[in-house]
């Protein structure tokens, strides 16, 4: 006899997030701006305050608060290694944000390149995984080639990408999932293509990380970056890199800093209090995962402890969010004048995260966002730095698209409230 795996207990999940209690005009607000940054659990807030109250110090000192800080930083590296299934905590480096880390790594890789070497980027990506590589064309004389997007489905043109990877390719930089339209890329195949060509793979997982488990060892990628504030933690950037690469590449750093990773990649003093908050958020997710570990054990054989719990949590989140995304897309498809970008059929839900971009005839994206905002429903409009995609879709001159982004603390009732508001706004 088969059993159905339990859904997330939303009543318990939502109690962890104090921001969900915010009201506007007597109604709870609805956070559908999650692709721009998620809310954080109370444990994260408490950990930040506690660090500042009892641990605040710089590193490597011969006294209590510095020793506490050293222990917290070690725990932060270990916890993120668990989150990404990295083989070694030294493969995790922290920075201000994904963009800053990508500029740092691209500059380091650029020092090893010669004129005529090639880098492949894509038209689907956030500009943070495009512009740093394009800058190398001017700085180092490398050739940057852009793989195209199928505008009918907002998916990567995989044959075009494959054709652009050749014996001169040194880096393939691609997103795990589109931050604009939510489509998931076949990164395992792309990593394999890069490896077969002798190129490095650089994955932007900022938009994927809140929605599903990530296993860098299974992917075999060389680098992966994500942002903590997109998965319920403070504003931080995270870099995973294979240890031999982090050891070998020439990082820009001050002279007294260690030549050993991750310190050689973590320029200056880290944001200690926010890293304490990150650890607390990962502990929250691990707690969530403990309620689902048994159901997901088969998918995460070889993992144990917090690592297994974190991956089980993200698998549970993925299941729950697919149901919400199906409800959202069904309602949007029935909305008069709406154009949804990307795959929208129920069978295609495994190919997307619960982020939807749309336009509605007769209304600019900004007008829609403002009208929803007056109703206490928060959504983004514009291009969200997915500039090339919006240009390919012809949407940039008219203000891009309205973006609706779900997270695991959203509910079916909130989706229904959004749909009702949109019907009212367009007069349906």
List the keywords.
single chain, Aspartate Aminotransferase, domain 2, 2 domains, globular, four-stranded antiparallel beta sheet, Aspartate Aminotransferase, domain 1, alpha/beta, 428 residues, 15 helices
Question: What number is the mean pLDDT?
Answer: 95
Straight-line N-to-C gap: 46 Å
CATH C-level label of the largest domain? Alpha Beta
Shape: globular
Number of domains: 2
Largest sheet: 7 strands, mixed
The helix fraction, in percent, is 40-55%
Describe this structure in words.
- There is one protein chain.
- This protein is an alpha/beta fold.
- It has 15 helices and 17 strands.
- It has two domains: 10-41 and 308-426, Aspartate Aminotransferase, domain 1 (Alpha-Beta Complex), CATH 3.90.1150.10; 46-282, Aspartate Aminotransferase, domain 2 (3-Layer(aba) Sandwich).
- The protein has helices spanning 10-15, 42-54, 64-84, 98-110, 131-140, 158-164, 187-196, 216-219, 243-248, 272-290, 293-296, 305-333, 365-374, 387-392, 412-426; strands at residues 23-24, 27-28, 30-31, 92-95, 118-122, 143-147, 149-150, 155-156, 169-175, 200-204, 223-227, 237-241, 338-341, 355-360, 377-378, 380-382, 401-405.
- The strands form five sheets. A seven-stranded mixed sheet has the order 4-12-11-10-9-5-6, with helices on both faces. Strands 13-14-17-16 form a four-stranded antiparallel sheet, covered by helices on one side.
């Amino acid at each position: 006899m088969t059993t159905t795996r339990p859904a997330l207990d939303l009543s318990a999940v939502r109690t962890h997030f104090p921001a969900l209690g915010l009201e506007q005009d007597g109604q709870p607000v609805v956070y559908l701006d999650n692709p721009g940054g998620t809310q954080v659990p109370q444990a994260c807030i408490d950990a930040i305050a506690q660090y500042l109250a009892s641990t605040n110090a710089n590193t490597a000192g011969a006294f209590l608060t510095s020793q506490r800080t050293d222990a917290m930083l070690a725990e932060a590296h270990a916890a993120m290694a668990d989150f990404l299934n990295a083989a070694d905590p030294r493969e995790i480096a922290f920075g201000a944000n994904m963009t800053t880390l990508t500029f740092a790594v691209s500059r380091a890789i650029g020092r090893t390149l010669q004129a005529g070497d090639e880098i492949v980027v894509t038209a689907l990506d956030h500009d943070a995984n495009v512009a740093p590589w394009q800058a190398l064309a001017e700085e180092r004389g490398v050739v940057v080639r852009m793989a195209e997007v199928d505008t009918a489905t907002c998916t990567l043109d995989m044959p075009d990408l494959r054709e652009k990877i050749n014996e001169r390719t040194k880096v393939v930089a691609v997103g795990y999932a589109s931050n604009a339209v939510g489509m998931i890329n076949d990164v395992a195949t792309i990593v394999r293509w890069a490896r077969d060509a002798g190129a490095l793979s650089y994955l932007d997982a900022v938009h994927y990380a809140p929605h599903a488990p990530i296993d860098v060892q299974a992917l075999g990628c060389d680098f992966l970056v994500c942002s903590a504030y997109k998965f319920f933690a403070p504003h931080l950037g995270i870099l995973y890199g294979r240890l031999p690469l982090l050891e070998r590449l020439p990082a820009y750093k001050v002279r007294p800093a260690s030549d050993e990773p991750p310190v050689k990649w973590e320029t200056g003093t880290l944001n200690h209090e926010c890293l304490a908050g990150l650890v607390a958020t990962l502990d929250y997710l691990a707690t969530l995962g403990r309620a689902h570990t048994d159901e997901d054990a088969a998918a995460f054989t070889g993992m144990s402890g917090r690592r297994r719990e974190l991956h089980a949590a993200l698998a549970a989140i993925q299941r729950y969010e697919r149901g919400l995304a199906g409800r959202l897309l069904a309602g949007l498809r029935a909305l008069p004048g709406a154009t949804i970008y990307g795959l929208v059929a129920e069978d295609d839900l495994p190919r997307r995260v619960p982020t939807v971009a749309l336009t509605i005839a007769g209304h600019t994206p900004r007008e829609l966002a403002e009208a929803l905002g007056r109703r206490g429903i928060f959504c983004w409009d514009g291009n969200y730095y997915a500039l090339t995609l919006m240009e390919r879709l012809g949407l940039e001159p008219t203000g891009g698209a309205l973006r609706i982004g779900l997270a695991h603390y959203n509910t079916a009732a909130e989706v229904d409230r959004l749909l009702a508001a949109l019907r009212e706004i367009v007069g349906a």
